[in-house]
């Protein structure tokens, strides 16, 4: 079965019983740093593996990038 969620404003179909950790791993570059906001609540990184996504969840992924101006 599939569940529909919204990731950064775009509807996505994902496997049922998928963890936030799996989605974050799939959406970040290796070693990337990010914050996950699920249904308007920041989820602590230690809880990503045990946080299961469900139908109609809204996930915002904010990735941090290095660099800056001179």
UniProtKB/TrEMBL annotation:
Coiled coil: none
Top-level taxonomic group: Bacteria
Pfam families found in the cross-reference section: ThiS
Xref: NCBIfam families: thiS (TIGR01683)
Name of the molecule in the record: Thiamine biosynthesis protein ThiS
């Amino acid at each position: 079965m599939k569940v529909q969620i919204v990731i950064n404003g775009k509807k996505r179909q994902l496997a049922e019983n998928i963890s936030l950790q799996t989605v974050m791993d799939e959406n970040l570059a290796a070693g990337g740093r990010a914050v996950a906001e699920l249904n308007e609540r920041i989820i602590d990184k230690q809880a990503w593996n045990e946080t299961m996504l469900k139908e109609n969840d809204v996930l915002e992924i904010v990735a941090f990038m290095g660099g800056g101006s001179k």
